[in-house]
Amino acid sequence: MTTMTPDSAERFLTIPATLDFEEANEELYRLGVTDGLPVVPPTPDRVARMLDGLRRDPAESLGALGPAYGQATIEKIAVNAVMAGCRPEYLPVLAAAVEAMAEYEFNLYGINATTHPVTPMLVINGPAAERLRVNSGYNCMGQGWRANATIGRAIRLILVNIAGGTPGKGDRATHGTPAKFSFCLAENELASPWLPLHVRRGFAPDMSTVTVHGSESPHEINNHTSEDGEGILRTFADTISTIGHNNSYLGRGEVAICIGPEHAQTIARDGPGIQDIQDYLFRNAGNRRSELLAIARDNFDAMAPFDRSEEDPFVPLVEKPEDYLLFVAGGVGKHSMAMPSFGLTRSVTKAIDLG
Hints:
Layout: H1 21-31, H2 44-51, E1 61-65, E2 70-73, H3 74-84, H4 91-101, H5 108-113, E3 119-125, H6 127-131, H7 146-161, E4 184-186, H8 197-200, E5 209-215, E6 219-222, H9 229-240, H10 246-250, E7 255-259, H11 261-269, H12 274-284, E8 286-288, H13 289-293, E9 314-316, E10 324-328, E11 335-340, E12 348-351
């Protein structure tokens, strides 16, 4: 195995098959290339089998990933996929997600190196979700599904081993978040009363896509009592209108809301579509400037439009209604989930080449 420094962006390629599971894991942990949990040793045979999942040149780079700007070659992605426990058929999802994270507007350098507890959230749409059995229903943000767990975990290992996001070095997160272990789910398109996320973003319904969003950990939106859409939407707005996240004072970036199927049905029954929800949140989610000044944010540079001539203007969380990233997922229960963002980031959607 190649000997490299722990904060190198090109840690290793494969590990000798002669090492047993415990020896391999001790060596990989010593090198700082794991997420702290046991991994599948990336032997040459395992990596070769993983590469069978994507018919592309293993040496092809999908971009340089910050903060270390290591080249994300197909082979290196495959190595991390092996370690995470992925199946070969998951490799096209990882390739598309890496391409999305490499886009300038996603700002991976900022997301990977910040003190803020932000992590890439992957939302999968189209035939890939069913074919790969990516959970979009009960506990879709939790444990129990191999595709969700290992695809999300592989992204984290890629951010450590290619992008250089070693905790305390390239990754300066003050606390981090459990979502940094894995954050991947599919949209529950069958339970949604609206067009799926990828279609609203310009892709054909029969295309498979992955959307990558720079997310905080999900925060519950609980409303078991409202019988109308207005009550649900008001709860959405109240939940995300906190002065403690980046969107509140930056007034830019995006806020994602995973709408639970029951909440979605209640809202849609009263007529609102996705654009109506976005418009409502834009008008109602935010804070008065005085509230921001009260915590000494007197020099905030909010990009969201507000009337500076007013004595105490309302400051929205985002620049425009479309900056609310909305999708439907989850099982039965009157819950939704809110994910503020790093602020200085934009979600990116890429097509998945299933071959």
